Amino acid sequence: MSNPLNLDLQARAELLTYLVASNLLALELTGEWLPVTNLVESTRLWMSSNGAGADVLERVRLAGKAHRLAQDLVAQMGAMEAGHVTGMFCDNLRLDFRSALVRKTYQECLNSLGGECRR
To answer: What are 3-33's pLDDT values in tens digits?
Structure first.
């Protein structure tokens, strides 16, 4: 059974934030951006744990946007302190919205989606 296509603006922004954070974490831990296979898995994991559904084109579009936003954030932040990005996640690999970096990232993601209409 597949999930309905139910990503409203806030859900898309949260998924986008999760993918940006995943990219930043991969960069911090490995020095490389998140490989495509892991990006696909991160998208699937987030959608599964949030009961969300999106078609393939929407997921690909958000994944590409996440990579660009992650690059922009790195350019804005400059050199990141060790452990700064790992604080974006709770122990269960959910975003920790108590983190200032998560809130900033979410706002950037929401702004990047602001002009989009719900399909």
So the answer is: 456 788 999 999 999 999 999 999 988 999 9
* Structural domain total, the chain: 1
Percent helix, strand, coil in the chain (nearest 5)?
65, 0, 35
Angle at 27 between CA 24 and CA 30, to 5 degrees: 145
Task: Give the domain range for residue 91.
Answer: 9-112
Nearest to 11 by CA among 50, 44, 48: 50
Q: Is residue 22 part of a domain?
A: yes
- Domain membership of residue 3 (yes or no) is no
Q: Is 74 exposed, middle or buried (0-12, 13-18, 19+ CB in 10 A)?
A: middle
Look at residue 42 and tell me if it is in a domain: yes
Predicted model pTM: 0.87
CA 117 to chain centre: 20
State the residue for tokens 């989009």: 116
Q: Please identify which residue in the block is written with the tokens 């804005």.
A: 76
Is residue 96 in some structural domain? yes
